[in-house]
């Protein structure tokens, strides 16, 4: 019993350290980005912010399915299977990245035609070139995540974000306009690659039959990618619909309010999701399936409690002080444009956003990507309907609708996880328990 308690405490400590490294990297990076956004807010018009929102939204939606298309599989593998699967994983990474580059490049033309703004085309194509750089570091990043080297992962996020903010501010002051935002985002990919590759050689590729085939890895990665895409669509559907219903200027105001209000809290949430998936997968590698539900529930509950304890005070303080610091820091033109109520409402929605991130990572870790996809698509549909209806009354109504739908659905999702997912995992069938026990004994024998 004492060993189990010590192991549980050690697991909590490991996750807390991982979250600290990733969270601190995100927060420090967001502070630098905040300084950069102050310069941008004073130099750029809402129309330019609207253009940037369109480009970055398209990039995020296309990039998201490729991010974990192989890493989700690699993280769960043992050493033998990992070495035998690297070649196939690299092929899938390149195929996905080239497809993403072509898709975004082609998408730039109809978007420019719809918004009657040909200035969108060149920045979108330049932004798309960053997809072609990603495969140079994707396998190395997966190895670091698999080994729980969150200090390295956090360092990559930190320096990528810091350099992005510094370059953006410098280029903006030099008068580069929209290029001041797009060009740094391509250049800092090289920093991310360099940090993940530094002193991190890949395991020697093994052509043994123990590796996963391309179809099997691609199928699992596609399901995870679609689940991630549903989350990204949920997080970006507001940009698409506001741009469609209210125009680029309103989108620019919303984009400013969203990023300045949720920047730090979303950084914490994203770091939390990155650490949580490896944390939850670790419980299934080391424990028998018969007892995994208790350990899994403990890891999930503790991690969610921890991130909420961090996020809630930050968001509450930010909301209370916003009427004072928004005009002082960003300028009165944003107050006159009506950004303050939108800022406060979006900021408050961040109180429950970590719950959705936790639920998604949990479902993926227990091979319920299809359920995760259905849940996120359902929420995205509700969010789209809410935004469509509320847009008839303006931007503040849209922000209020987004807050209400998050406050209702995120706690409901957590309740569903507690009542149904964990109970099914805990009960199981005798046959499943026996098969899982056999697999566990085989793994122990193999490790020995």
On the 0-100 scale, what is the average pLDDT?
81
Mind summarizing the main beta sheet? none
Query: Which structural class fits the helix and strand makeup?
Result: mainly alpha
Figure out the total of helices.
16
The count of β-strands is: 0
General shape = globular
Count of discrete structural domains: 1
Oligomer: single chain
Helix content: over 70%
Strand content: under 5%
Run of helices and strands: HHHHHHHHHHHHHHHH
Distance between the termini: 23 Å
Taking all Cα atoms into account, the compactness measure Rg is 22 Å
Instruction: Outline the low-pLDDT stretches.
Output: 285-292, 426-448
Subcellular location: Cell membrane
Protein name: Oligosaccharide flippase family protein
Main location: membrane
GO cellular component, one term: plasma membrane
Give a written overview of the molecule.
α9 packs across α14 (369-390). This protein has one domain. The radius of gyration is 22 Å and the shape is globular. By secondary structure, it is mainly alpha-helical. It contains 16 helices and no strands. Helix content is 86%, strand content 0%.
């Amino acid at each position: 019993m004492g060993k189990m308690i010590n192991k549980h405490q050690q697991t909590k400590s490991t996750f807390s350290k991982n979250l600290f490294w990733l969270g601190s990297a995100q927060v420090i990076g967001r502070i630098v980005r905040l300084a950069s956004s102050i310069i941008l807010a004073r130099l750029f018009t809402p129309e330019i912010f609207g253009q940037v929102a369109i480009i970055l939204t398209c990039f995020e939606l296309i990039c998201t399915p490729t991010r974990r298309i192989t890493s989700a599989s690699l993280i769960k593998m043992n050493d033998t299977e990992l070495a035998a699967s690297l070649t196939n994983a690299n092929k899938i990474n390149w195929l996905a990245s080239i497809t993403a580059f072509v898709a975004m490049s082609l998408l730039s033309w109809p978007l420019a035609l719809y918004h009657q703004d040909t200035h969108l085309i060149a920045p979108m194509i330049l932004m798309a070139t960053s997809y072609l750089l990603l495969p140079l570091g994707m396998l190395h990043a997966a190895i670091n995540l698999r080994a729980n080297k969150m200090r390295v992962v956090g360092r990559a996020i930190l320096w990528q974000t810091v350099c992005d903010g510094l370059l953006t501010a410098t280029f903006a002051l030099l008068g580069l306009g929209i290029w001041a935002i797009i060009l740094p985002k391509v250049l800092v990919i090289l920093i991310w690659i360099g940090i993940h590759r530094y002193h991190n050689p890949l395991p020697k590729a093994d052509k043994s039959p123990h590796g996963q085939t391309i179809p099997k890895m691609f199928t699992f990665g596609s399901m995870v990618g679609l689940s991630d895409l549903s989350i990204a669509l949920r997080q970006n559907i507001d940009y698409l619909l506001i741009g469609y219903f209210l125009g680029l200027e309103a989108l620019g105001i919303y984009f400013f309010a969203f990023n300045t209000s949720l920047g730090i809290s979303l950084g914490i949430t994203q770091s939390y999701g990155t650490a949580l998936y490896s944390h939850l997968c670790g419980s299934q590698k080391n424990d028998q399936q018969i007892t995994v539900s208790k350990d899994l529930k403990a890891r999930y509950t503790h991690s969610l409690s921890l991130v909420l304890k961090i996020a809630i005070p930050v968001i509450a303080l930010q909301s209370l002080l916003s009427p004072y610091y928004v005009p002082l820091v960003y300028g009165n033109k944003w107050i006159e444009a009506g950004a303050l109520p939108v800022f406060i409402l979006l900021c408050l929605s961040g109180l429950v956003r970590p719950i959705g991130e936790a639920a998604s990572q949990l479902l993926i870790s227990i091979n319920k990507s299809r359920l995760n996809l259905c849940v996120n698509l359902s929420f995205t549909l509700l969010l789209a309907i809410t935004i469509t209806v509320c847009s008839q009354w303006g931007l503040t109504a849209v922000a209020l609708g987004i807050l209400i739908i998050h406050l209702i659905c995120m706690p409901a999702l957590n309740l569903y996880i507690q009542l149904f997912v964990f109970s099914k995992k805990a009960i199981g069938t005798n046959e499943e328990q026996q098969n899982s026990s056999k697999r566990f004994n085989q793994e122990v024998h193999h490790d020995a």
